[in-house]
Amino acid sequence: MTTSKAITVQKLHPTFGAEVRGVDFSNISDEIFSEILAVMAVHGVCVFRSSGLDDLSHVEFSKRMGELDDVKRYMTQGRKPRLPYFELFDAGNVDDKGNAVAPDSARAHFGKGNALWHVDSSFNPRRASFSLLRAVQLPPPNNGGNTDFADSRRAFDDLPENLKQELLENNYVGAHTIAQSRKLGSPEYFKDLDPSKEKMARHYLVQKHEPSGRMNLYIAAHCHHIEGVSADKSQELIDTLMKHATQEKYTLSVEWQNPTDLIIWDNRCVLHRANGGTFEGRYVRDLRRTTVHDDGPMAWGLNNSTSDREDYVSKANLAAATNSS
Ligand code: OGA
Ligand code: MN
C-alpha cells in the first residue's frame, strides 16, 4: 500500500501491523507526521527500520505524539536512572555495570511480567496511547528477543456473539495493578506480594478506539479482576478473553534487526509482550521506550483525573516499573 510519494507501508499481518519505509526522522514535516498517525490508526503497530534516532531525537519526536510519561515517580529511595532523560523508560536488560542482568537478579524477576501479554500503563489512572520502543544495542542474531503483538480490535470483532453482547451490555470495568503481572510473571519470587492490596486503576474492558472508530478489547496481564462479578466469574472472563485475544492468528512477532530500529504501537488497540530467548543472562539487549499519555475521552477510565500516579506504585512494585511495562 502506498500512502504518498514519500512513505510506503508494507503489511506484516493480514489484520494489523506494518513496516513503514521512507521516513527521514531527521526531518519530518507536519504532513508526513499526520501520515504516520493515520497509518498508526489503521495498523496499530508500525516498524521503522534504522530510524537513526538517538536519545534526544527519540524524546523530541515522541513529544509530537502527545504529553510524555516519565520515570520521575520511580526515582525514590536513591534510585538513579541509567538513561539521560526522564522520558526514557529502560526496557532493556542492562545492569549498572553495563552487562546483561543476571537471571536470578531482582531486575530479571521484575522483568518477567513483560513476557506476559499486556498493554503499557493500564495500571495507571491515566493510561498510555502510544509506546515508542527503540533499539540501542541488540544481541547477536538468532538469540531471540522479538517483541510480539496481538490485534485486540480484531479479537473483539471475532468474539462469539453471545459473549460480545454480554460485554457490550454490562460495560465491565477492569481493575489493573502492575503487581498482578509481576506476580504472574514470577510467582515464587513474588510469593509475598498480594496484588489485591494495591490501588487499582479502573478502565473499561471494551472501549472504542477513537482514532479508528473501531471497538477494542482492553485487557492485559495487569488486569487483576473485573468489577461487579464474582471472583470466579471474573477469573473465568479474564482467562477466556486473554486466551481468545492472543491466539496465534491474531499475533505478529517482530524481530529487532538493527540499532535504532523503532517500533511504535498503540496500547489502545494492541497487546504486546517480550519474547525471551537465549540472549537472556548472556547478551545485552538495550531497548529504550517513551510512553505517550492518552489524551482521548477514555484516557482516565473511571479514575479521578486529579489522582496522583505515585499512589499506584507501592514499595512492593516500585522496582518493577523502573523497567518498563
Ligand atoms: C515495553 C515492553 C517488550 C520487549 O517496553 O513496554 O513490553 O520486547 N517491551 O522488550
Ligand atoms: Mn510493555
From TrEMBL:
Where in the numbering of this chain does the TauD/TfdA-like domain appear?
Answer: 9-291
**Alphabetic keyword roster:** Dioxygenase, Iron, Metal-binding, Oxidoreductase
Q: Which domain of life is it from?
A: Eukaryota
Q: Which InterPro entries does the entry link to?
A: TauD-like_sf (IPR042098), TauD/TfdA-like (IPR003819), TfdA_dioxygenase (IPR051178)
Q: Annotated Gene Ontology MF terms?
A: dioxygenase activity; metal ion binding
The question of whether Iron is a record keyword is answered with yes
- Entry keyword annotation includes Iron: yes
Stated family: Belongs to the TfdA dioxygenase family.
Q: Which PANTHER family match?
A: (3R)-3-[(CARBOXYMETHYL)AMINO]FATTY ACID OXYGENASE_DECARBOXYLASE, DIOXYGENASE RV0097-RELATED
Q: What is this protein called?
A: TauD/TfdA-like domain-containing protein
Write down the species: Helicocarpus griseus UAMH5409
